[in-house]
Amino acid sequence: MSIRISNLRLRFDEPETELPTRLARVLGIPQSELVDWRILRKSLDARDKSRLGYVYSAQVRLPDQDENRLLKKSASPSSVLVERFESIPFEVPVPGFEPLSHPPVVIGSGPGGLLAAFLLAQWGYRPIVLERGKSVRDRIHATRLFDGGGAHDPENNYLFGEGGAGTFSDGKLTCRGSGSDVQQVLEILANHNGKPSILYDQRPHLGSNRLPAVVKALRRAIIEKGGEFRFGAKVSDLEISDGRLHAVMVGNERIKTQAAILAIGHSARDTYRMLLHRGVPIEQKPFQLGVRIEGPQEVANRIKYGSKMLENILGPADYGMAVRGKSTGRDLFTFCMCAGGYIMPSVSAPDFFCTNGMSLSTHDSPYANSGLVVTLETSEFPGTDPLAGMRLQENIEKRAFELGGGDYACPAQRATDFIAGKLSTSLPGCSYPRRIFATDLREVLPPVIAEVIKDGLPLMDRRWNGKFLTEAILVGPEARGSSPVRLPRNPDTRQSLGVEGLYPVGEGAGFAGGIVSAAVDGLISAKAIIKLWSPKGLSPKA
Q1: Which residue of 41, 103, 161, 426 has the lowest C-beta tally within 10 Å?
Q2: What is the distance between the alpha carbons of residues 110 and 421, in angstroms, rounded to a whole number?
Q3: Residue 436 and residue 409 in contact, taking contact as beta carbons nearer than 8 Å
Q4: Angle at 377 between CA 372 and CA 379, to 5 degrees
Q5: Are 357 and 371 in contact (CB under 8 A)?
Q6: 473 with 414: CB under 8 angstroms?
Q7: Is the distance from CB of 264 to CB of 271 less than 8 angstroms?
Q8: The sheet that has 502-504: what strands, in order across it?
Q9: What is the sign of the dihedral through the CA atoms of 137, 143, 148 and 150?
Q10: What is the mean pLDDT of the chain?
Q11: What is the mean pLDDT of each run of 10 residues along the chain (542 residues)?
């Protein structure tokens, strides 16, 4: 028998080791009988700062107990809920009858590609993972050199390489979805150098310093299960005939395959152009565009916690806001907030500039930064072709690079000066590792985006009692929050509408918006391959 106990509260100063005692008390059983239990959810209740605490739900298995008796017990306090609970198991379909003659190919090793490859390898399909960048160890070295003023490597940077852009994008594992697929992704990550708390924290977070270890562990597991990894293996072309994929090209090498997971991420612009040239269906999609706002972490802590004591207990505070401007009638919202974080250069190609944010698991920066963006609709794109939104991104990022003098300096402006429409005569400290310079960000942003930001910022400031903008700096552009294109696919088979055997997944395909959602998308497409094909036809490795 499985029971869920919800709304169980511990004070912030009570140790989590107290949970078994409280659970046993609620059920009215000796603690010695509570041998099989787990936390399902943990969230902070900060509505009343005088009663700050954590709220838990937990699953308890008690096979030998009288179910009706336990469920009728009155819990104390009365808000605690005791009910039957059966979790939905993660299921993989029975492999199809038609055997694969060549291993499936996974293009890209971001969250979508990694989780797809992991499941395929686990079920004996021996996937070949093709990653245009380098291993995560080499990526860390390259990004540190770049942050210190070094040259940009177009194939080994914050966006390209093992783990994809998610490796250096804060490590948030929040997801709007739920269910067995989401739980399976979190369990795979937790079992491969992640931390157990990501399975139940309300806002699970690994940090950009911990993600590389997870990525490496997943790669090792895929190889141990028969998969293959190739770095520096940029897919240059697809061989398509009669509406079916037959092979992928890596330079002059032809790799035969009947099934390829296309998990290229949202910044592989050269690959988008190749796909369009090959006739793979691509369509425009709205995307988020704006700037990144940064201010002292101390200000966020005081607004959310009030007292310094709570900060010492709970760590740096995060925040999220969305407002609708009075004159524009459009929404301005924060996303990817990095408490105790850093602004980073989100650059995939030479001579472009874009920002993003990250934080380590320690949240040890004195700054808090967040994306500050507007959804740009396809009707506002400069053209009707499928890549019009991507070209807009490129034009904006090219202008930002040129304004900085060509050395990846970051355009910056005080938030109050942006609203006033004047150049900043001085700039506060900033976490961006290279040079920042004062400019009017209206020279970078489309007028419609600049107007929405100007309209919405005072409303956000009002929510913080006038303390949100006083020391805040805007940097930008922030143009990589989501993909400007979608690769349409059959909702049942998960294959491209125009190319059988090609499985677009993740953020780059326009079907995800974060690490977990991209990983789930890859996992589901891997299950679609398993359902269609059998691995029994694969020839033994040489």
Answers
A1: 426
A2: 40
A3: yes
A4: 145
A5: yes
A6: yes
A7: yes
A8: 228-231, 128-131, 105-107, 260-262, 502-504
A9: positive
A10: 91
A11: 87 88 88 88 80 88 65 60 85 92 96 97 97 94 93 94 83 73 92 86 76 93 97 97 97 96 96 97 97 96 82 85 95 94 93 92 91 97 96 97 94 98 95 96 96 97 95 95 95 96 96 91 97 81 44
Amino acid at 79: S
For residues 402-423, b (16+ Cβ closer than 10 Å) or e, as one string? ebbeeebbbbbbbbbbbbeeee
Condensed to tens digits (0 to 9), the pLDDT of residues 397-450 reads 999 999 998 999 999 999 999 999 999 999 999 999 999 999 999 999 999 999
**Complete DSSP assignment for 337-355:** EETTEEEEE---STT---E
Dist CA 295 CA 428 (whole Å): 9
Nearest to 500 by CA among 124, 131, 238, 110: 238
Task: Tell me the C-alpha distance between 289 and 79, whole Å.
Answer: 43
**CA-CA distance, 393 to 478, in Å (whole number)?**
9
Tell me the C-alpha distance between 438 and 103, whole Å: 52
Identify the pLDDT of residue 295: 97
| DSSP assignment of 356-410 | EEEE-TT---SEEEEEEEEEEPGGGSSSSSTTHHHHHHHHHHHHHHHHTTSS--E
222 SS3 class = helix
Instruction: For tokens 């310079």, name the residue.
Output: 437
Q: At what angle do helices 111-122 and 211-224 cross, to 10 degrees?
A: 30
Q: Provide the Cα torsion 9, 14, 15, 18; round to 10°.
A: -60
Give the CA diameter of the chain.
74
Could you give the CA distance from residue 502 to residue 274 in angstroms, rounded to a whole number?
14
195 CB contacts (<8 Å, ≥6 apart)? 206, 210
Q: What angle do CA 248, 252, 258 make, to 5 degrees?
A: 20
Sign of CA dihedral 463, 468, 469, 470: positive
pTM of the model: 0.93
In 3D space, the residue among 55, 52, 53, 51 whose CA is nearest the CA of residue 43 turns out to be 55
367 and 412 Cβ atoms separated by less than 8 Å: no
Going along the chain from its start, the domains and CATH numbers come out as 2-84 (3.30.70.2700), 98-284+493-537 (3.50.50.60), 287-478 (no CATH)
Our measurement of the distance from residue 93's CA atom to the centroid of its chain's CA atoms, rounded to an integer in Å, reads: 27
- Residues 107-154 have pLDDT tens digits of 999 999 999 999 999 999 999 999 999 999 999 999 999 999 999 999
Q: Are 59 and 40 in contact (CB under 8 A)?
A: yes
